[in-house]
From TrEMBL:
Listed name of the protein: XRE family transcriptional regulator
InterPro entries, per database record: Lambda_DNA-bd_dom_sf
Domain of life: Bacteria
Length: 406
């Protein structure tokens, strides 16, 4: 038996908003409080219920149909009536949504390509300053549109390769922001398509960026052997620009650390540091700008963390946080990882000032991967019982409330 129509519509509505089930659970809770004055079960219970609804194992009962309609800004009948038209599923990158059908009537030309590249850079700037949560849906919409133009040939003569290259870059931007929004499988899906486009365009520089992204995702998803193979394949592929080699040595070092090979892992990180000491050369792609001393210190701290050496992790993570003096997504994430290391090391006093720094940024940056890390950190502080100082314990409770309301 296939998926019930209403279940498919619920799933499509969520994908259309680029929300996780946890995000829908949060919005359901808010809608119930604001519009119905009722309390719902906890977020974890709601997330399980959403999973059951979207797989057709259970059908929502009152008041959930009304609340779901509010959350998705749809009529209840659109979601649940058998004869209602289907909700377009925007999770499929090449779908023919209304947006894409409209875009196909406007063939891409050279100005479109130039605008696409400018928009990609603007989205990178916004993400760096404010995080990926809010920027990602726009990046994904842009990538879907240009992908649809390429798929059906809605473009002026002579620009196909330029458009493929610009589309590959647009896909990498969307994939990164999906990662920061903690939508890792979506990020993997997007970057695979972006990689295909960059290869079709013959854009080796962007292809290397996308391979570095895939290696990073493999680490995030507990697939270190895959991350190592990706890094090694690039490192042995031929003469690489120094900073590109440094990035893949970082991926190699992190993967080896996860696998418990400390000596070879830190050898790779040291090679990366040596390469980074060189000035940026004309051969280095423009996208290597983000690999700097702060980023490398952060990766060294993370390698110690992956080896379980939390006390040693704190110093390079602190160095990374200090070097990244400009407020923004990177500094927020560095500070969160530093706090995580200090809490693991039970360095409670040192953690007090760091958690204050984190709280000062929590309302400014929309980064679900960082917020989810911080929720795990506050749980660890709470479970530590009488160990943390009263100041740290109180701050952890305040931080949890801030994250829940953001």
């Amino acid at each position: 038996m296939g998926l019930p129509t209403w279940a498919a519509r619920l799933k499509a509505a969520r994908h259309g908003e680029c929300w996780t089930q946890k995000e829908v659970a949060r919005r359901l809770t808010e809608a119930a409080h604001e519009h119905a004055g009722i309390c719902l079960p906890g977020r974890e219970s709601l997330t399980r219920m959403l999973r059951d609804w979207e797989t057709g194992r259970a059908r929502p009962r009152s008041p959930y149909p009304q609340l779901l309609a509010l959350v998705y800004d749809l009529d209840e009948a659109v979601l649940f009536d058998d004869d209602a038209p289907d909700v377009p599923d925007s999770s499929t990158l090449g779908d023919m949504s209304v947006l894409n059908l409209f875009a196909l009537n406007q063939p891409a030309d050279a100005e479109y390509v130039a605008t696409l590249r400018r928009n990609s850079q603007a989205l990178v700037t916004l993400d760096s300053a404010h995080g990926g949560n809010e920027v990602f849906p726009l990046s994904l919409r842009i990538f879907r549109t240009v992908s649809a133009k390429l798929a059906v040939g809605s473009l002026a003569a002579g620009i196909e390769r330029d458009l493929e290259a610009a589309a590959g870059e647009s896909g990498e931007v969307a994939a990164w922001q999906a990662h920061d929004a903690d939508q890792q499988e979506t990020s993997r899906q997007i970057v695979h398509e972006a990689l295909m486009l960059s290869r079709l365009a013959g854009d080796r520089d962007m292809e290397l960026f996308e391979l570095a992204h895939l290696s990073m995702l493999s680490l995030c998803q507990d697939r270190p052997r895959e991350a190592l193979r990706l890094a090694d394949d690039v490192l042995t592929s031929g003469d690489l620009p120094p900073r590109v080699a440094a990035i893949f040595d970082v991926r190699r070092g992190r993967a080896l650390a996860v696998m418990g090979d400390k000596a070879r892992g830190f050898d790779a990180l040291q090679r990366a540091r040596s390469a980074l000491a060189e000035s940026i050369s004309a051969r280095d792609p423009h996208w290597t700008w983000w690999m700097d001393e702060a980023e490398l210190s952060w990766h060294e701290g993370m390698a110690y963390a992956e080896l379980g050496e939390w006390g040693k992790a704190a110093a390079p993570l602190m160095d990374a946080s200090v070097r990244r003096s400009t407020r923004g997504r990177s500094r927020y994430h560095y500070a969160a990882q530093l706090l995580n290391a200090l809490v693991h090391a039970q360095a409670w006093r040192e953690a007090e000032s760091v958690i204050v720094d984190v709280m000062g940024q929590a309302n400014e940056i929309g980064s679900a991967r960082t917020a989810n890390l911080l929720l795990r950190v506050t749980d660890r502080i709470e479970r530590a019982g009488t160990g943390p100082t009263s100041t740290l314990a109180d701050s952890a409770q305040d931080l949890r409330c801030m994250l829940a309301s953001s």
